[in-house]
Amino acid sequence: MLTVIVFLSLALVHQSLGSENIDELLRKHPTWSFKVESVETAVKNALQKNSLTGHNLELTEKVLREKLRRNLPPGATHIVRKVGDPKWESDPSKVPGTFDAREKWKHCASLIGQVEDEGPCRADGPSIVSSTMSDRYCIFTNGAFKEKLSHEMLMGCGELCTGKSAQYQSWRYGTDFGIPTGGPHGSQKGCVPYTYPACDHTTYYDDYPGRKNKINECKGQMVFDHDCPKKCTNEKYKKPLDKDRVKLSTYYYTSDHEFAIRNEVYTYGPVVTNVLLYDDFLEKPNGIFQAKEGRKRLDAEKLIKIIGWGKENGTLYWLCMHTWDSWGDKVFKIPRGVYFDSMEWVVMTGTYLDIGNN
Description:
Layout: H1 10-13, H2 22-28, E1 33-38, H3 39-53, H4 61-71, E2 78-84, E3 99-100, H5 101-104, H6 109-112, H7 125-140, H8 151-157, H9 167-176, H10 241-244, E4 250-254, H11 258-268, E5 271-278, E6 297-312, E7 315-321, E8 331-335, E9 348-351
Parallel strand pairs: 2-4
Antiparallel strand pairs: 1-2, 3-6, 4-9, 5-6, 6-7, 7-8
Organism: Bemisia tabaci (Sweetpotato whitefly)
GO molecular function: cysteine-type peptidase activity
Signal peptide: 1-18
């Protein structure tokens, strides 16, 4: 398969990409296709798609630029998107209309159906990214590895508990260094279990600037930034931290086309995306999530894991998972293919594929 690249003076682009160097991606995955997209083009295309759906009038250029700022490394001017893979199915009729990763990979279902609550931390990237890394490593090993990878490690070494989520930092750390095992708070499982217990997230985020009714943080828990562990914090765990690490081969952005996203999930496992957060997201939806009239945008995003898709009463949906224990069932449905709250715009994941065998 030919590699699709938009030539934008690649020598200059290399140092400003929002993922790995394009040459490195091509070296690791020579059969995949990539597209280099400037931030300006990404914003323009997103505004156009949102206008066509008529879905979210608050999705302005300013909002989109802020979203990219949170999801790309500082100074990034371009995004490298994976747009093709010989393992993908090119015929849409051969990709199932309904899919649940827990059903395809039953030996990994317990991991795929599990996402830890981040507690009072403002960043939910470590939870979602570590969960997706666990899923994909279980799938990669055909179920031989079924341990939970450490949420705590990414919270201390990739992102900040007191900062807004920047998932690329977790993906980069997982690729550069890898993360050890580690269960949820109080589990005493794995090398580095999580520090915080779950809390009530209906009182979590600050309201969007200029709005009233400020929302308070989780009560009774102090928020602090975690140190990057140098050894296992679970004294009962005998394997040294550095020998316990599981390291990604690559992290990358997917295409923003829903068929490409479905292909990625169907072939390799769950992916991570995020939506702009509104106050109606704090309520458990009945059926497919729909925006409520008069909803208020909060000064945050919510990272979610896509594990499948389907169609219900004529509406296409993504099957997703979130992190909040206080929000009922962690599996929920959100509209698919209509850029709902910028759902398909910035999707990331990583692989454990052997170099030269993909």
